[in-house]
Specification:
By secondary structure, the protein is mainly α. The protein has 17 helices and no strands. The chain is globular.
Length: about 325
């Protein structure tokens, strides 16, 4: 359940950065901005998030930025680190987290000014909106600011995978929205996205969040059945739509494809469809990259993933 998702260069850079060596982090971030095939915004967003989560409790990134003040990658990672800190402080209720959020916003705006065509600072600002607005009766001005950031991100990368997942999370009832807003956004965007776009998975993310919200604070024996939830006709239709519109289209896998595959596979498993070619293909594609979310919503993530993988292939053994 390594969030690097098989990106070996990223994993090595993360480990080096945790020891105070930022050279590899500089390389893996610069590659996403200036590669031979052009910018890789999905990989850039993924890499900066993984690096920031790993070093948010240290000051290594601040030192890098001091030494290279005009490096847009250092500025971006610094903004992501401060946003991670603000989000953690918001969740824990740490006094003074507003000051952390305000500093994070300044750093995001600085990173955006240094790289005007990069959508990633705006993706980070969508994450930051959760820290600023959680638990607050946000006025229209606050919601307008959220949508302004979303529009800025869309102007740079219309179907940015991470940015739209961050926007959807903001609209969760557990954060700053409601189930109705979340579903409206997920269905609208999935319908707008071109064939092959990973945004087709957004309705499945919404279904998983509804189930998670229904089980919070509930004893295991009193929780609603995950099978009943994922076998509903609406969820089944959405699962089939994802199979056709995303996995059914020829497309280059994006940086977090395995996370989206986990959402789709989880939906198939709890819809009673573990014994099908699509489920087995997903287990093969995911390999060892099981993710804590959404498997943790329905039990221990490691043991449940391994159990269902065994079921998928043991049921198929006469045909292999």
């Amino acid at each position: 359940m390594d969030p690097a998702l098989g990106d070996l260069a990223l994993a090595e850079a993360r480990d080096a950065l945790a020891s105070g060596e930022w050279g590899p982090a500089r390389e893996v971030l610069a590659e996403t901005r200036t590669g031979d095939s052009g910018p890789q915004w999905d990989r850039r967003s993924h890499r900066v998030r993984v690096l920031a989560e790993a070093v948010a409790n240290s000051s290594w990134v601040e030192r890098w930025q001091v030494l290279e003040p005009v490096n847009p990658d250092a500025a971006l990672l610094r903004a992501q680190v401060e946003t991670v800190r603000a989000l953690r402080a918001s969740v824990s209720g740490t006094p003074g987290y507003w000051e952390t959020a305000a500093e994070a916003r300044e750093l995001c705006e600085h990173a955006a000014a240094m790289a005007p065509t990069d959508p990633t600072p705006w993706v980070i600002m969508l994450t930051l909106a959760r820290a600023a607005d959680r638990g607050v009766d946000a006025g229209q001005a606050d919601r307008d600011e959220f949508w302004r950031r979303w529009q800025e991100m869309r102007a740079r990368d219309a179907f940015n995978r991470d940015g739209h997942h961050e926007a959807l999370t903001y609209l969760f009832a557990a954060w700053c929205g409601s189930h109705a807003e979340m579903y409206d956004f997920a269905y609208w965007l999935a319908g707008q996205a071109p064939p092959g776009s990973p945004l087709a998975v957004l309705p499945l993310v919404a279904h998983a969040e509804v189930y998670r919200a229904a089980t919070v604070g509930t004893a295991p024996q009193r929780r609603p059945s995950p099978y009943a939830h994922w076998q509903r006709q609406l969820v089944s239709r959405d699962t089939d739509r994802v199979l056709r519109s995303w996995l059914g289209s020829a497309t280059v896998p994006h940086a977090q494809a395995d996370l989206d595959r986990n959402y789709l596979l989880h939906a198939l498993v709890y819809a009673g469809r573990v014994d099908c070619d699509e489920s087995r293909a997903l287990f093969d594609a995911i390999g060892s990259h099981a993710m804590r979310v959404p498997w943790s919503y329905t039990g221990d993530p490691v043991s449940s993933f391994l159990y269902w993988r065994e079921q998928a292939f043991s049921l198929d053994s006469p045909r292999r």
